[in-house]
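Weekly structure sync, notes
Attendees: PL, DS, HV (note-taker this week)

Item 1: Molecular chaperone
DS walked through the input record. Source organism listed as Nocardia bovistercoris. Sequence as pasted into the shared doc:
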Amino acid sequence: MSTPDPANGPRESLRYEPRDRADNTDLTVAVDYGSWSSAAAIFANRQVRDIFEPQALDLWGAELAALLGAESGIAEKVCEGLDSAARLDHRSPKLRIPASVGELLDRLGGDPGGLRHRLAATTAIALEQVLAYDEVNGPRLAPTLDDLYTRVFALPALSVQRLHLPALGRRDDIPDTDDLLDVSSVLMVAPKEVRSAHLRDIGDESKYEETDEAFPGSKRALAEPRRRGRLADRSLPFGWRADTDLLVGLSIRDLVKRVEFNALSSANEFELPIRPRLTQFVITFPTTLDPLARKRYRRLAHDALAVAPDIDPTAKPIAITMDWDEGVAAAMYFVLRSLSGFLEQGLDTFRSRAVGLPGRRGGWRTHMLVIDVGGGTTDIALLALDLVDLTAGDPAGPNDPPDLKGRSYTLVPRLLGSTGHPQLGGDLLTLRMFYWLKAAIADRLHADDPDHIPLAPAVLRSYDYRPVPAEVRAALRRLTPTHRTAEVDGPQGWQDAAFLRLWGAVENAKRNGVDSKGIKFRFGATHAADLPSGVAWIDALRAGDISIELSQADFRQLCAPLITGAARLGADLVRRCLGGDTSARLDIVALSGRTTTLPGADDDITEVLAREFERADGPGTVRWNPNGVIVETTHPKQAAAIGAAWVAGVNRFGFANRRAHGGDELTVQAGELRWTLPMSLGPAGAFGTPIPILSVGTRYAMTDPTGYASTIAFTRSAWQPLAASISLHRLLGPLEGARSMVWGHYLFPDSGGRIASRTLWYQAQIDQNLMLRLLICHGTEDGVRPLLHPDLGNHLASVEAMRLAEVEAARHCFEGDRLRGVPRIEVWSTEDPERTRTELFGAATAESVLTAATTTDGAFTGDSRHPGASLGQDAGRIGISAQPLPLAGSGKYTFAVDGVDTGIELHAPTFDPDIEVDGPDWATLDEYGELRIHAGYPVFRFVDSIDAMWHESGTVHLVDTEPEPAEPRPELDPFSGEH
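Item 1 (cont.): predicted structure, written out as tokens:
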């Protein structure tokens, strides 16, 4: 019997153990499955630990005393406000208020205990009240207080946000591993049966070995599965093949098992019920992973975690969430980091470094760039973070009675752009160190050869992010070979052994400190003894007295091309999104991933950003804060998992109300993260750089309420001439050899010379999941006029119309009863006091604006709204607005023509309640000058085949594109056998 196709056929669940279930605590688990190591984070649906632990509160009192002791004027005001502050702290109703500043400072710095803790909390509230009304000292002390709370509570205070880091090393069959927060991504598979496979634990000295039982690097095959012949002789679960998909599925299964074991065995430590249950699994993915690969990855995770019904018939499958790539997930961690712990101080700090939202009082915006350099990939995201005060009424003034309630805020993070590199990560640094070591060995072995040109300095001097200059690589293949000489699946003799010993030595050296002589790494006889014998250059190495040293300065030089390459990608993204916008400023540059914690990495990144942001060419200069560079050193590996767990938990469970106790309340509207297109897309141009037909920052504003084209928001390009083969590339950045990647490919099934007629056109459509599809339409050589569906177009359009023929300012645009030109038409929400205008149509000829067509021969044409229309009327010209109408709570809009307020108001359409429209409204304008509001984006007249589209001009056929996964470049893949 043939094995089912894993892409479509059923697969046996890899999960066999029934899960413990509880009635009151659900766990959301997020996993960052890495190239070399993996991490996880837990979000619980209820608070599990109080942040105010005794040790933290003791330090809090001492730090407040030190701060107030240096600020005598502020200390006096704080002392005066303690009585009202005590009423806000429900823990301090009977607190004895200090009579003077001196008594306050003495008691804050006095003996540890509950009374001191109460006074510290009350003093902090009073201090917040004082600084809230002080326009000078408030902003001045905001960073100081932020630093104070960071030190006291070790921000990010995960537990106050219901987050926990599980110890992934904790397994019942592996002792002394209960303190490991990450686990190796190398999968250990038993010789005969795969179901017992587990990840190798961090600290295993052989973690870089590839043996018959060890399988490293499976994440590198997410884009396209690779066969693993060594699995073929094992018993495989039904429906699975001997490939990397099975290895990834087994890895995910083991990660979840470790998390559950941790959560179940340490429930009392977390103050959880004895049996919490895992109900949601969140998995991040590389930014550059194409949509179809993401879909396959999601299904793979589902098949790995679903409970087999014959084991537990009552269990429900775990909900799988795959909404955030690793760059966005890391960005959400930094949002959490800036706002968690002492929330009020986090909000003050946010406001102190933000700019006001245009046209909105009580609104602030910051821009954040996140560069996450992992073991195998670089993931980059640029976000706008909008903080809005939703509290009714203005804050209490200095002379008003104190407001005993907190304020309500909402934070709206929006992804402006993302990019990355599928093979730019810590592995490349190790590979550069590996080639430096081989070059240094070759230089030592051939030091007496007058014709030998030193190779190690050439490796150091190379500023290319790729591991080694081509001429050096060729020389090393001859002098110190470790590359494979044949294609094999699995280890190959002394070549692999030599490579892995040298690789392991330099990989471990990356984490070493620097000795008193400034040396980062020494290679000597002990290392040489580990190499396989019987190889000429290795035997010669052992015979000599060898000592090779890598200084800290040279180590930084090896790091620089990798670090600066990631920085150049980030700078290019920011310039494309914010360049030339004088009102925008990049406020925060956040660095995560262990590679960014290497000495000097933040300085190198800052230098590159400063240089790139000063460039006036292209998009233009960028305003930024060079002091806003922060490096995550506490959780560099876990940042993406924490961020993903947090945003998923916030979306699912929300926050408890804090306002009644005097605290501020914050909600996070993470649903608006995917607001605009985060990338530029187009056919390849010179040097591999695409010519964009869709640009980063384009708003997702089109929705198709009928489901013809998409069930989520999407955007479309302008119509383009169709070629026989269409490849659309995603722009990545300026790195040579990696400027773009194919995001979707389509091969037109031509017959009868249809392409040669040059009358076929296409639109690129991309949705919020970055799924790329093409709309194909038959027009003429000069252009295309697609048909709008008459039925849907009518009953989803407003009954009311603005008739331009009746507007004085537009009458010059008519020739008879039809438009020969279109005036500038603007709209605003009638209830908007600012009357913020949106341009729907720009002034132009009717031919250039009315680019679609409509007919009146459908079932709903008896009440056709076109003047004089009747059944069977020829197609009429119609145009769709350049952008959607602004959102309006009342659904009522006012229009202007050529800048003149018409006084005409239209209501948004009402329609069949069975048709849901989840998105903004658009406007249509026909050749008779009638403008109507349309529910959602107008629907084209779709047909289900290429032939039907060809024979009925103006109809549209929708096709999927296929991914074209780029083969991993062997020179960047450490385990390709090329090195």
